[in-house]
Specification:
0% strand; Ferritin; mainly alpha
């Protein structure tokens, strides 16, 4: 069993991973809408990777007998002026 503090920190990280996943999914959708199939595919791969991270952290908490606590998230940005701005936001994130 892990400490409550450690479980809380891991839960916070799980929520950050899911926000990142949703941000990349929003980027993938916007890129697809603009006709940038390659960028949409790459952002979708990033989305899947972030989900995988969240699931690994969740499994770890479960294995430790700790409860996974999913918190509310703000909606990510859903539109960018172009691919450059999108990648600048991805890098800044």
């Amino acid at each position: 069993m892990i400490s409550e503090k450690m479980a809380a920190e891991i839960n916070a990280q799980i929520n950050r991973e899911y926000f990142s996943a949703f941000l990349y999914l929003a980027m993938a959708n916007d890129a697809a809408d603009k006709g940038f199939a390659g960028t949409a595919n790459w952002m979708t791969l990033q989305f899947e990777e972030e989900q995988e991270h969240a699931l690994k952290f969740s499994k770890y908490l479960q294995d430790q007998g700790a409860k996974v606590e999913l918190g509310a998230m703000d909606a990510p940005k859903t539109s960018w002026k172009g691919i450059l701005e999108m990648f600048e936001d991805a890098l800044a994130h």
